[in-house]
Structures are given as C-alpha cells and as structure tokens.
Design goal:
It is found in: Cell membrane. Residues 13-559 are cytoplasmic. This is Septation ring formation regulator EzrA. The protein has helices spanning 2-28, 32-43, 49-85, 89-147, 156-179, 182-233, 243-262, 266-325, 335-361, 367-396, 398-425, 433-453, 460-498, 506-522, 525-539, 543-558. It is mainly α and 559 residues long.
C-alpha cells in the first residue's frame, strides 16, 4: 500500500512540473516585448485628441502589466517551484492553476493593446497616404476644368467654387492629420470624398447637358421652324397650329435650363431638358403625321369616292326592289325604313367627303383629319354594304317562301282528303269527339292558310307561322289516323278469328262482347284491339302476333 502511495505521489509531482514548464513557455511567448516596441514606435507619431488619449491608455495598461502583472506571475512561478521541491503538492497545484488564469488574462490584455496600437499606426498611415491621393485628385480635377473649360459652359464658375471648397476641406484634413487628431481627420476625409464624388458626377453630366441646351435643342427647333414654314407654304394645315409659339417658348426654356445649369441645379435642369425633348418630339410627330396623312389621303381619295358611289347605287337598287315587293308582300322587318336610314348615312358620308374634297382644292385641308374621315368612311361603308346584303337576302327568299307555302297548302289539302277517304273506306260506326275536334281544327287552319295566301298582299311571317303550326298538328292527326285504321282492321280480324272458339270458351265470349262494345258504341278501336288480343293469347298463344305480322306485311305491299 505504501508503495502505491509513493508511486502516485511521484507521478502527480512529475505532472505538476510538466504543467509548470508549459506555463513558463506561455509566459515566454507573451507579446510584452513586441507591444513595448510598438508603444515606442507609436509614441513617435504625433497624436492629438481622442487618439492621444487612447495611446496613453494603452501605455498605462502596458506599464501595469510589466510592473505588476508579470512581476506577480514570475513570483508565483518561483513559489510553485519551491512547493514542488518541498513536496507541498496541494499548494503547488493551486498556485499553478492561478498562474494559468493570470497568464491568459495578461495575454488578452497585450493582444488588445497590440490591436489598438496597430490601428492607430494604420489610420495615421492611411491618412498620410490620403493626403497624397487627394492632392493628386484635386490636381486632376483642376487640370480638367482648365483644359475643358468650354465644355462646362456657364457651370464653370460654380465648379471652380466647388473645387475651392474641396481644397479648403483638404487643407483642414492635412492640418488635422499633421496635428494627430485622427478622428477629426477621418471625418474630414469622408467629407472630401463625398465632395469629390459629387464633383466628378457633375463633370460627367454637365458637358452633354450643356451641348443639348446650347446646340442640340436650338438646332432641332430651327429645323422644326423651317420645316413648319415650308409645310405652310406647300398647303399643309394643322388643327391647332401653335408650333411657332411653342418654338419660342422652348427657346426660352433652353435659356432657363442654362441658368439652372450655371447654378448646378441638376434636378431642375434635367426636368427642363425632359420637357424640351418631349415637346420637340411631339412637334416632329405632328408634322410627320400630316406628311404621312397627305400621301394616304391622295392615294385613297378616288377609292373612297368609288366606295360611296357603289353604296349609293346599291341602296337605290335595293330601295326600288323593296318598293316593288311591298305591293305583294308585307315587309314586316323594317326593310324599307332601314334602307332609308342607310341612304341617310351614305348621304352624310358623302357630305363629309365633298367638304374634304373642297378643302383640298382650296388648300385648307388638315390631312390627318381627312385621313380619319376616310378611315371612318371605309369602315362605315363596309358595314352599310353588309346591312344592304342582309336586307336583300332576307327579301330575296319571299317568292321562294311563297311557292313553298303554296306547295305545303296543297299537300295539307291532300292529306286531309286522304284521311277522310281512309276513314270512310273502313265504314266505321263512328269516331271519337277528340279525333273529330282535331280534324276540324286542322281543317280550319288549312282553310285560314288558304285565305291568307290568296290575298292580294300577303304576310310571309304570318303564313310561315301558320305553316309551322299546321305541320305539327297534321303530324299528330296522321299518326292518330294510322292508329285508328290499324286498330280497327286488326280488331275485326281478331273477332272473326275468335268465332271458331266462341261456343267453347266463356272468357273469350265475354271478351268479344266487351271488344264489340268498345268498337260499335264507344269508337275506342285501340281498346277493342287490346281486349281481343289479350283474350286470343290465352286461348291460342302466339296467334295474335302472327296475325299482326301478316297484317303489316300486307299493308306494306299495298302502299
């Protein structure tokens, strides 16, 4: 047990010696010497204001570290070594732990001082370099102002003033840099950079703007003025000819733009330039519009005349045709009135055309207006001709419709005659009131149709409506007639067939009596057939179906 304790003590003491050696190395790696050199170097820089206060703070911190913190660390290291040598392992362990924390704190402080001193040196270096850079930039701007003075026009004086302002701030910056007030110098450097950027932007914008206001816009205005004068002399006209007044106003705007440019009021100058440019474009567009319109008007003048002449002629022919048709037919869709309205529209179009033609011959034509008239005329005349065609097509069918109606009337007469003939040929005991009423209704409708169609002046709308009504009712009447004929004939055949079983089957006798009552007294031939068919099927299954098939086959061959 004692051996184990001795071994544990040996290894624990050895480990503490190893930790102490590590701390010694950490202490040796501290930047105290480097920071001291940096303090000496930074102290040679002229500092002032807040920068000087920071330097002094770093210096005080360094002195405290070297005079107090590092001395304390060296003393603790010596104590730790004594504790180990005298086997006071617990005290050695505590001292070594405290040493680690102390060295780490000192290392952090030295790093902060190092970073702060580096920043002071770097800012001083940047400012001294900026002195040279800004001086070169000022020289370049000054040289550009001198060599290109003509391109800045009235802005030159204000640009010179701005450059003087930059030089004044630059001198302050140099003074503060030499004085060592880094914060004040940094603030002035930012101001200088903003002023230089603003100056460069102005020197980039002003030349082109000056050319526009002093040369380009006046040249365009002179060109418009000459072009406008030439157009007036060559018989062009405008709806509201204020071009000369606008030109004079824009020339004044050019002068106003130069004034605002001289004051370096760029937003106002841009606003003026935009207004001048847009107005010039609009005047070019107005004149171009009249030039293009004249070519189109000259090209279309004969075409529009021919279009009007053709529409008038078509309307006259249509009107004459309607007049003739109106003697025999009721024109019930305002054909005559609509045609008269179309004639009035054509007349108005022709009046506008004639006025425009006189304006051209009288050298008073506004060609863009006349072009619009021509476009409207072609569009409206196309619509008129379509309406004329629609009216013509609608009345062109009247004679054909009349022939169809007369053919239908003849067909209805024959159908009624055939119904009567077929019913009479059967020698039936009678017909139901319902059938007779339908027959009479159709007969009366056909008679009314005959009366309507044989008038001197007829209404095809009325006749076509009657035809549609009669056609539907006639179809039902023909279907009812077929049912009566087929049911009556089949019922009679079944009654004759039933005679062979009459005395042998009481149910069949009763059915025959019932069917005969339906047939002779009630005229309900379908019920008579249904009664006989059911009774026969009970006595002789399949007999009715066979007789029905034979009947319809005979019917087909006799048609």
């Amino acid at each position: 047990m004692l051996v184990i304790l001795l071994l544990a003590t040996f290894f624990y003491r050895k480990n503490l010696f190893k930790r102490l050696d590590g701390l010694e190395k950490q202490k040796s790696n501290l930047k105290d010497v480097m920071v001291g050199d940096e303090l000496e170097a930074t102290g040679k820089i002229k500092l002032n204001g807040e920068s000087f206060d920071k330097f002094n703070e770093y210096k005080e911190q360094y002195e405290k570290i070297t005079n107090s913190d590092l001395t304390s660390i060296r003393s603790d290291m010596s104590d730790a070594e004594d504790f180990l040598n005298s086997y006071k392992l617990l005290s050695a362990s505590v001292t070594i732990g405290d040493l680690g924390d102390a060295i780490e704190v000192v290392d952090g402080k030295l790093n902060d001082i190092h970073d702060g001193l580096s920043e002071l040196q770097e800012v001083d270096s940047l400012h001294r370099k900026a002195i040279e850079d800004v001086d070169n930039t000022i020289r370049e701007i000054n040289q550009q102002l001198l060599s290109q003075n003509y391109s800045f026009g009235p802005s030159s004086d204000k640009l010179e003033d701005k450059l003087s302002t930059i030089k004044g701030v630059y001198e302050e910056f140099v003074a503060e840099t030499e004085n060592g007030d880094q914060n004040k110098a940094e603030e002035l450097l930012g101001k200088i950079n903003n002023l230089i950027n603003e100056m460069n932007e102005l020197m980039k914008i002003i030349p082109d703007t000056y050319v526009s206001l002093s040369k380009e816009f006046p040249r365009q205005l002179d060109e418009i003025e000459r072009g406008h004068r030439t157009m007036i002399q060559t018989d062009y006209n405008f709806v509201e000819d204020d071009i000369d007044d606008t030109i004079n106003a824009l020339k004044e705007s050019c002068q106003e733009g130069l004034k605002s440019l001289a004051e370096l009021d760029i937003p106002e100058t841009k606003k003026t330039c935009t207004y001048i440019e847009e107005t010039i474009d609009s005047m070019y567009a107005i004149m171009e519009k009249e030039i293009v319109a004249k070519r189109k008007v000259k090209k279309n003048i004969s075409l529009v005349y021919d279009f009007i002449f053709h529409a008038k002629n078509q309307n006259r022919i249509l009107s004459d045709e309607l007049e003739g048709l109106s003697k025999n037919y009721n024109l019930e869709h305002d054909e005559i009135e609509n045609t008269a309205e179309l004639a009035d529209k054509i007349s108005k179009i022709e009046t506008i055309y004639n006025n425009d033609y006189d304006a051209i011959n009288g050298n008073k034509a506004v060609y863009s207006v006349i072009q619009k008239h021509q476009q409207d005329a072609k569009q409206e005349l196309s619509s008129i001709e379509k309406q004329q065609k629609d009216i013509n097509d609608s009345v062109a069918e009247l004679s054909k419709e009349e022939r169809v109606a007369r053919d239908s009337l003849q067909k209805f007469d024959l159908q009624l005659l055939n119904i009567r003939r077929r019913i009479d040929n059967l020698n039936l005991p009678g017909l139901t009131e319902d059938f007779l009423e339908r027959y009479d209704y159709v007969y009366n409708e056909v008679s009314n149709l005959s009366a309507s169609i044989n008038q001197v002046k007829i209404s095809m709308d009325e006749i076509n409506q009657k035809l549609a009504n009669i056609s539907d009712t006639m179809d039902h009447l023909l279907s009812d007639t077929e049912n009566i004929v087929d049911s009556a004939m089949l019922s009679e055949r079944l009654m004759q067939f039933a005679n062979r079983y009459k005395n042998a089957n009481e149910d069949l006798n009763a059915a025959c009596a019932q069917a005969k009552d339906y047939f002779d007294n009630r005229y309900q031939y379908e019920k008579s057939l249904a009664t006989m068919a059911a009774a026969i099927e009970k006595v002789n299954p399949g007999a009715y179906k066979q007789m029905e098939t034979e009947y319809y086959n005979e019917k087909k061959t006799t048609k």
